[in-house]
Amino acid sequence: MQIPIASIQPHPLNESIYGEITEEEVSDLIQSIEDVGLLEPIVINSRNQCISGHRRLQACRFSGMDAIECTVKEFSEDDAVLFIIEWNRQRRKTYRQLLNEAKSLMTYYGKKRKRGRPALQLNRTDELKHRKTTDVVAEKLDANRNTIYRLLFIDKHFPDLIDDLGTKITLNQAYIQVKTFLNRKTIQSSRNGSRKNLNRDEGASYAIYNKSSKSMDELDDGIVQCIVTSPPYWQQRDYGGLKDEIGREDDVDDYLDNLLEVTAECHRILSPKGCMFLVMGDKFHKGCLKLVGHRLAIRMMDEQGWVLRNDLIWNKMNLKPENLNNRYSVGHEDVFFLVKSKRYQFNIDDIRIPYREKDLLSRAPKHHRLNGTSIGIQTATLKNPLGKVPVDVIDFPRNEPPPYTETSVKHEASFPVGLIERFIRASTNPGDVVVDPFAGSSSTGIAAAESACYFVGYETNRKFIRLSNERLSRLEK
Questions:
Q1: Beta partners for 207?
Q2: CA separation (Å) from 273 to 174, 223, 227, 307, 346?
Q3: Are β-strands 224-229 and 433-436 bridged in parallel, bridged antiparallel, or unpaired?
């Protein structure tokens, strides 16, 4: 029968599952209807709601038709979702539409289970008996069970990713990446929770020794998980310690020899899974930059067996201007990231940096051959919601930014606690031992306490030890 188009409305379930239909989506169908007419009537219920043929209905609207051929079907409203999905079986669907079908059927069959009656009255057998709802849904949708499971899984944890499936990333790749991220997140949450709840019942959570770190015999072999230190600069500052303290040597090689005695002890006490972060300032001598830190790092590798993982650049950002007219101003220090073996612990998720863009996916840049042609298809990857891996240039102010906290100190060579904390969180778990063989005022100790780690420091200057005890004791109150 012919029914005025204006009186026919889409069924609400259809729009919720398949979304609104635009003129562009049905442009081919509009042309076909204008050429040969409507070849098959649409199906409506007694309330003039379209059950089957929504795309044809909208195409007829866009083409300006006044009436359309319809067939009326009656069925229980409870079962409307079954008929709508069944009559859209041949439709080409996006993953979003397939997911909406699956969720609608999951809800439908969930209600049937609660009522304790067969899911389909049209089928005289109990389809849910001894079967998982997901299996029944996959069968009704003529879809693979794994496809339905993975869609539901992704929708539960990363719903914004659904619309990118099949266009920017495959379903299988998205599922694997989401699952991988969730596993990492579980480990990270457990670790962070432990950091917050660490409770030491055996007294102080730190120890500071007034002695040279050339001998750290208080510590057993391999007991330390992380070492963070900034040795005294060579011929640059008087720290008020011993007359023969490191940094006062006349020759740079003598300075390096003394430091190597300390790094040898660091190698002994560091765990095979541990990390060392060595912050080194450089020195101009007779107009020539001596590359002191690089000389030391090379000798540590060649003579002591250290493995250099990164030469990080600490960009200090807020330096005082130098009065120069013949070279560039120096605004960084090197941070040498060293380990004893390649099987070290590194908690990358604890130091990720938030993305500026809000997109969930990133696509690798295309690579080209020398003749300019593209090499392969670049597959999008799921961005880690915790952020991106930090690069080897770290922007961080030289001193603690104002206002000063109660654990901030004014010190000639102050070491920012926030910078140290990044290194400690990347390489430790709660309760691990952190050492600074040149403790100074124990900024490393503050960062260790913030990360729920035990701190051991070595310092020859009694003034700095008193300051360290004052700073660290405040944290324990």
A1: 456
A2: 32, 10, 12, 12, 9
A3: parallel
pLDDT in tens, 240-267: 556 678 888 989 999 999 999 999 999 9
| pLDDT value for 241 | 55
Of 355, 177, 101, the C-alpha closest to 165 is 177
What end-to-end distance do the CA atoms of the chain give, in Å? 85
DSSP for residue 51: E
**350, 354, 355, 357: CA torsion to nearest 10:** 150
Tokens matching residue 87: 């009559």
Instruction: Write out the two tokens for 1.
Output: 């029968």
Q: Which residues contact 33 (CB under 8 A, 6 or more apart)?
A: 56, 59, 60, 63, 65
Q: Identify the pLDDT of residue 147.
A: 94
d(CA 338, CA 144): 49
The three-class DSSP label of residue 475 is: helix
CA 278 to CA 275: how far, in whole Å?
A: 10
Strands 206-209, 380-382: pairing kind: unpaired
Q: Of 89, 87, 106, 103, which is closest to residue 49 (Cα–Cα)?
A: 87
Rounded Cα distance between 219 and 270, Å, is: 10
Rounded to the nearest 5 percent, the helix, strand and coil shares of the chain are: 40, 20, 45
Residue 192 in contact with residue 441, Cβ under 8 Å?
no
Residue 199: predicted pLDDT:
42
Low-confidence spans in the chain with pLDDT less than 70: 113-129, 184-204, 237-243, 363-379, 399-414, 476-477
- Rounded to two decimals, the pTM is 0.71
Secondary structure in 3-state letters for 95-126: HHHHHHHHHHHHHHHHHHHHHCCCCCCCCCCC
What are the beta bridge partners of residue 436? 457
Given a contact cutoff of 8 angstroms between Cβ atoms, the answer to whether 9 and 17 are in contact is no
Residue ranges of the chain that CATH labels 3.40.50.150 = 206-318+331-355+378-475
**Following CA atoms 217, 223, 225, 229 in sequence, which dihedral angle do they give, to the nearest 10 degrees?**
0
Name the architecture of domain 206-318+331-355+378-475: 3-Layer(aba) Sandwich (3.40)
118: Cβ contacts below 8 Å, ≥ 6 apart = 112, 124, 125, 126, 127, 128
The whole-angstrom separation of Cα 225 and Cα 86 is 61
User: DSSP labels for 270-337?
Assistant: EEEEEEEEEEE---EETTEE--HHHHHHHHHHHHH--EEEEEEEEE-SSPPPP--SSSPPP-EEEEEE
Structure tokens at 372: 């300019």
